[in-house]
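Q: I'm teaching a short session on how sequence maps to structure, and I want students to see two examples side by side rather than one. Could you give me a first protein with its sequence written out and its structure tokens following it? Keep the formatting plain so it prints cleanly on a handout.
A: Of course. Example one:
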Amino acid sequence: MSTPTTKSAILDNGLRYKAKVSGSPFASNSYSGTSTMSCFLCGKHRARSLLGTRKFLGKTQAVCAPSCKEAEEADKRS
């Protein structure tokens, strides 16, 4: 089996990924039920339907509902 050719290299100007595919792995659809956001507290990406909101320093942030610990346990069970 041959080694695949490398499509990325560090260039002289310090840039990498000359042939990297553009876009995000967290692309959202037009239907908001399938889009994801990261929890402000734990940083894990979850569906928006699994997040709630809490105020932190006067700004509303998306957080795991009802808590990050319970959401993590629910992930392990499923």
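Q: Perfect. Now a second example for contrast.
A: Example two:
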Amino acid sequence: MAKPVELYATMSCPYSAAAREDLEWRGVDFVEYDVEQDRVAYERMLELTGGNRTVPVIVEEGKSVQVGWMGQGCFV
């Protein structure tokens, strides 16, 4: 069984909301981390992105880490 997709996001970013809505619409199992509220998740996101502080970040097993949504994102 594949691991759920990880979504690193913020509640205030419209691109995070768009990524969340797309995952929900497609019925993808995902775990969301609010990097403004969860310092451990924020640090993990920085490790995954090589220090990039743009959300959303989507991590799917076997695929490259996706930073931003449709070429857009919010800086945290």
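Q: What should students look for in example two?
A: Point them to this: The chain has one domain: 5-75. Also worth mentioning: The mean pLDDT is 95.
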